[in-house]
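I would like you to sit down with the pair of lines that follows and say whether tokens and residues agree.
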Amino acid sequence: MELTPRLQDVINLVKEKGQMSLKDLALELKVSPKTAKGYVRELSRLGFVEMDDNENIKLKTNNENNIESLEKIVQIHESEINALKKDLEELKEELLKLKRKNKLT
């Protein structure tokens, strides 16, 4: 199962903070609390996070498979970001070459 980048962002934030409020999550993601709650509900349904009555969110740690799965997802997410950064650098170099070529003609 592969999570969307946004859900991966939620997991990364909660993992980084250990626990965070729904309000703080919404602020970090720059979305409404309602949207943030939707993300948390989906991750809760999938068994990755849990939210208490005070709307504090934390990773579910009662299942070792979930932690391993989360780590794999984070690694995939990070490798995708690195690949995109590399592509971006290549495009920048190509653009510079085209600009130089344009100046010569």
Q: What stands out?
A: Residues 64-104 form the longest helix (41 residues). The mean pLDDT is 87. The chain has four helices and three strands.
